Structure to design on (722 residues):
């Protein structure tokens, strides 16, 4: 018996709800559905997540039982979509890694060249250091995504990336003393 | 302090707030300026396919909070700006729908049916004028209903509903949203369940943060901004990108010749359109007042009502409905615009967000503090001033200010936004994605928030792919904490009675309605899918 796409979604969420209610909630919540505190019974921490599980369970069950009758045109999850999603994910992981490491590496190189002993953490709110990681990572992310969508690399994509970086610095950093651009809150 | 005093204080809070600049010695308050700026931005983003009011709200919220700070004085300028965006985006969505057959917002889809044929006939400016007039009329009507109804509804809730009834009302709202949003009630229930689950991660009353699997990043719960922006904005951007990637290079747009004459909106045409606008405005307002029912359904009903009337009153020379009838544009635009004001009725009176714009208003209120949308806002205290009530009437004033701008300069701004539709999607979407992630980072100042946002973005994308609406997820995520707290309090207040939701007649009626709503929706869905199968 082959299941329709909706029935497969229903089966997935049915299984998820069963695991949530019977495995995840009992193992990862300290109190039960009700707790007794000073001889008074009150609602425990497991109660609300179980209600959430019941919502998912009813929806999943109904999709599994009756989801096979409707033939709606839906966006396919195929190799093309997975390839695009994978590439996009890789681009963003790489760009945020760049954001995290470009600033400290630049400080390290500067220390080697000047003989100074500076720390990126102490320079994270000082120009130009605070912009380095953000500018490199952000330009890379925007340029790569535009290139992915257009199916070719172009100088125009790099220029748009740079302009977008400048715009974001102008919007989020220049007018404010209390805002930190990525990754400067984490270093 | 009477009701009129509160209304007057609300108006003054907007008009006499901190001065931004002065013209001939008359000060212009910062709130007025923010409403105007928000309105301009709203029209621009509404007219840009791939953008929309919620994206503009998401990007501007951290900037606004940084500018105005976390004091109650920030509430009116910040929320006024968001209201301006909401109003502007409503009319802006019609621009690409009419000019390029590309709806700027999902609810402008039906506008393309008559709007684009009018453009093809060389009547683009006339179509835009009809859309603007209908939209602004519907919106103003809806705002009047909001201002009249919200306080009364809130007073009713506060006077007659105790804790068990309030808990049952929240369950009814969630069931209603699950059953009514997105076409499939089963998927709505799944979306609601996932939203509740996300709300309960890392929260609770025990020392151990539940459902975190020991992760330190989740110990204080999932950040509201990350979850909402991830599921709503990032998910939508990834979906748009995948669609573009799939259809790359397919669409080409043709320039149309414009007729030079007969593009105005004559009194005769206005008189002809008013019955269509009136019906659609009433239908849209009623639908908008129900939480979670989007403007797409309102536009569909408005369009159907308009078509029925048009069939009876149509002149033989008039174009068919769907083939360039101004009445079609008027019916759709009046209906979807009248949803926006009425959608705020459940937010302001019950604290239940009905659409994405309402979610961002709640987000702004939560970020700044000092204003908690819900029935407690409308307490007309006489001995001392209730500041939340002044803010509420200030928000109503902001809405009328935005409407005033819409009536006076909205049409000109709207017609000048055709250029926005030419921004290529493959450039716009990557910039929006990065801008949103940067906005989240500057607000949360932690890379963990960015990863959580991306994770919920992937979830939002998959939900769209599988036809699951993210709106019930967001509403459940926002209401989840309040539902649990109300259930706990109600259980304790009734002496740990396990049947507290069924012992009280009003609570039992709400619970019965909740069950009935879901059952009817599931049965209707099953029936319609069977009939589709047969056909």
């Amino acid at each position: 018996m082959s299941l329709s796409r909706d029935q497969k979604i229903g089966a997935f969420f049915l299984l998820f709800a069963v695991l949530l209610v019977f495995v995840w909630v009992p193992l990862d919540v300290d109190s039960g559905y009700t707790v007794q505190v000073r001889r008074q019974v009150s609602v425990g921490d497991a109660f609300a997540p179980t209600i959430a599980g019941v919502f998912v369970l009813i929806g999943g069950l109904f999709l599994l039982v009756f989801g096979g009758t409707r033939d709606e045109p839906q966006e396919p999850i195929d190799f093309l979509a997975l390839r695009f999603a994978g590439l996009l994910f890789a681009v963003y992981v790489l760009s945020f890694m760049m954001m995290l490491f470009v600033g400290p590496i630049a400080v390290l190189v500067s220390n080697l060249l000047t003989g100074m002993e500076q720390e990126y953490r102490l320079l994270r709110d000082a120009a130009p250091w605070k912009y380095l990681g953000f500018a490199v990572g952000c330009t890379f992310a925007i340029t790569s995504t535009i290139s992915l969508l257009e199916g070719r690399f172009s100088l125009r994509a790099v220029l748009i990336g740079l302009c977008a970086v400048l715009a974001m610095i102008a919007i989020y950093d220049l007018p404010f003393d209390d805002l930190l651009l990525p990754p400067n809150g984490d270093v | 302090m009477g009701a009129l005093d509160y209304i007057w204080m609300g108006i003054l809070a907007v008009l006499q707030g901190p001065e931004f600049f002065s013209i001939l010695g008359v000060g212009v308050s910062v709130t007025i300026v923010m409403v105007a700026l928000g309105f301009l931005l709203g029209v621009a983003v509404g007219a840009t396919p791939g953008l929309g009011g919620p994206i503009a709200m998401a990007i501007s919220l951290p900037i606004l909070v940084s500018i105005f700070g976390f004091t109650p004085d920030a509430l009116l300028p910040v929320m006024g700006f968001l209201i301006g965006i909401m109003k502007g985006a409503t009319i802006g969505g019609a621009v690409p729908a009419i000019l390029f057959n590309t709806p700027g917002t999902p609810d402008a889809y039906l506008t393309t049916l008559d709007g684009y044929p009018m453009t093809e006939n060389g009547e683009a400016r006339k179509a835009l004028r009809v859309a603007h007039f209908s939209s602004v009329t519907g919106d103003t009507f809806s705002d009047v209903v909001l201002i009249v109804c919200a306080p009364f509804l809130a007073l009713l809730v506060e006077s007659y509903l105790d804790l068990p009834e309030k808990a049952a009302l929240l369950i009814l709202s969630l069931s209603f949203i699950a059953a009514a949003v997105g076409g499939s009630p089963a998927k709505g229930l799944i979306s609601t369940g996932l939203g509740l689950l996300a709300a309960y991660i890392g929260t609770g009353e025990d020392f151990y943060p539940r459902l975190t699997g020991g992760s330190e990043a989740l110990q204080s719960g999932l950040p509201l901004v990350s979850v909402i922006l991830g599921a709503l904005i990032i998910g939508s951007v990834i979906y748009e990108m995948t669609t573009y990637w799939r259809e790359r290079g397919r669409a080409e747009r043709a320039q149309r010749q414009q007729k030079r004459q007969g593009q105005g909106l004559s009194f005769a045409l206005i008189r002809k359109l008013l019955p269509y606008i009136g019906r659609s405005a009433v239908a849209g307002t009623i639908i908008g007042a129900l939480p979670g029912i989007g403007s797409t359904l309102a536009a569909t009903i408005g369009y159907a009502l308009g078509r029925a009337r048009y069939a009876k009153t149509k002149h033989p020379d008039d174009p068919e409905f769907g083939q360039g009838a101004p009445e079609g544009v008027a019916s759709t635009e009046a209906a979807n615009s009248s949803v926006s004001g009425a959608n705020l009725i459940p937010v302001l009176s019950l604290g239940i967000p009905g659409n994405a714009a309402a979610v961002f208003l709640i987000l702004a209120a939560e970020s700044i503090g000092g204003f908690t949308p819900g029935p407690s806002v409308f307490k007309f205290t006489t001995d001392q001033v209730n500041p939340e009530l002044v803010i509420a009437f200030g928000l109503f004033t902001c809405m009328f200010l935005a409407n005033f701008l819409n009536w006076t300069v909205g049409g000109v701004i709207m017609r000048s936004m055709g250029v926005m539709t030419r921004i290529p999607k493959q450039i716009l979407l990557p910039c929006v994605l990065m801008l949103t992630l940067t906005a989240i980072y500057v607000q949360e100042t932690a890379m963990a928030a960015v990863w959580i946002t991306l994770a919920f973005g992937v979830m939002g994308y998959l939900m769209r792919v599988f036809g699951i609406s993210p709106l019930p997820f967001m509403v459940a995520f926002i209401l989840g904490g309040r539902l649990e707290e109300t259930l706990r309090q109600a259980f304790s207040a009734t002496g740990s009675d396990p049947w507290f939701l069924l012992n009280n007649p009003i609570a039992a009626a709400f619970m019965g309605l909740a069950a009935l709503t879901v059952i009817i929706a599931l049965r209707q869905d099953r029936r319609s899918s069977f009939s589709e199968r047969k056909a």
About this structure: The two ends of chain B are 63 Å apart (CA to CA). Residues 124-160 of chain B form the longest helix (37 residues). Residues 249-257 of chain B have pLDDT under 50 and may be disordered. Chain B touches chain A through 82 residues (CB under 8 Å).
